[in-house]
Amino acid sequence: MVHFVGAGPGAPDLITIRGAELLKEANVVIYAGSLVNPALLGLCREDASIYNSAEMTLEEVMERIEEAEGKGQTTVRLHTGDPCLYGAIREQMDLLAEAGICCDDTPGVSSFCGAAAAIGAEYTLPGISQSVIITRLAGRTPVPERESLSKLASHGATMVIFLSAGMTDQVAAELLAGGAYTEKTPAAIVYKATWPEEKVVHCTVGTLAEAARANGIRKTALILVGDFLGSVYERSRLYDPAFETEYRKKTDTKQI
Ligand code: SAH
Questions:
Q1: Would you say the pTM of this structure is higher than 0.85?
Q2: Topology of the domain comprising 111-229
Q3: Which atom in ligand 1 lies closest to the alpha carbon of residue 110?
Q4: How far is residue 67's CA from residue 56's CA, in Å, rounded to a whole number?
Q5: Computed over its alpha carbons, how large is the radius of gyration of the chain?
Q6: Residues near ligand 1 with C-beta < 6 Å?
Q7: Segment 58-93, tens digit of pLDDT
Q8: Residues 6 or more apart whose Cβ sits within 8 Å of residue 16
Q9: Could you give the CA distance from residue 96 to residue 77 in angstroms, rounded to a whole number?
């Protein structure tokens, strides 16, 4: 049996209880060493075989899993954040299915949630944006043309840009090309959210590239863009005294 587990964004206590239990029991642990906090490996059994997938191919990962299966052992495949985002889990799941090996998936706290927590932000502010676009700039891995950053930026929605901190000049240019953001649109770079070395840099679309350079940030960071980082928004209807819901009658309490 193979358990895919989301390790969370960095802080070791941000793995789920279920994920931690699976990690404690596993005979074999294959972890994404480029981003998973090694402190989590302290949870593993003393006799667990531990492999860093950053140094392995998909074929090597499968070999280790098949070896474990042959001995009737359990494998945890530990991915950073939540495995469903840029985790390359689908190709593993398909090969496991072909080999007749069962697997399941335990979600984790994605870094985009860790980054929002780091800056105390809500991505979906009423009157500002009710959508979050999670994307990346094309790099060595291509992005379909219909999803180019400039096209997605044309919505002016909240954007969370993964895997692009080393290409901030191009990110800023594409954001502006979308036509909905201006040089003054607020942005932030969150480096290693929830790790002890976490760093938050507030900037604007116009100063994004300079801000990344000045702070020496090239990787392990998210770029957040949008007016949710500003000070203007509307109050929610949900908690408005004048608004009635299934759970609450409206009252004549004055709004604060
Ligand atoms: N599955 C992961 C994303 C893996 S892709 C998740 O859900 O978060 C790797 C990219 O995620 C990095 O290049 C960076 O853009 C982002 N990332 C991962 N952990 C991060 C963290 N703690 N702080 C900021 N960005 C992070």
A1: yes
A2: 3.30.950
A3: 7
A4: 15
A5: 21
A6: 9-10, 35, 79-82, 85-87, 110-111, 114-115, 162-163, 190, 192-195, 219-222
A7: 999 999 999 999 999 999 999 999 999 999 999 999
A8: 6, 8, 106, 107, 108, 109
A9: 12
Secondary structure of residue 128 in the 3-state scheme = coil
Distance from Cα 192 to the centre of ligand 1, integer Å:
8
217's CB contacts (< 8 A; 6+ apart) are 165, 189, 191, 199, 201
Q: Name the residue with tokens 């985009």.
A: 112
Flag whether pLDDT at 162 surpasses 90.
yes
Task: Give me the residue spans of the domains in the chain.
Answer: 2-106, 111-229
CA distances from 119 to 30, 115, 174, 193, 224 (A): 31, 7, 24, 9, 10
The pLDDT tens digits for 11-31 are: 999 999 999 999 999 999 999
Pocket probe mutation, ligand 1, options 111, 163, 167, 168, max atoms within 8 Å of Cβ: 111
Question: Of 180, 134, 127, which Cα lies nearest the Cα of 153?
Answer: 180
Domain at 2-106: CATH architecture: 3-Layer(aba) Sandwich (3.40)
| 166 Cβ contact partners less than 8 Å away, ≥ 6 residues apart | 218, 219
- Per the CB < 8 A criterion, the answer to whether 139 and 112 are in contact is no
Per residue in 212-239, pLDDT tens? 999 999 999 999 999 999 999 999 989 9
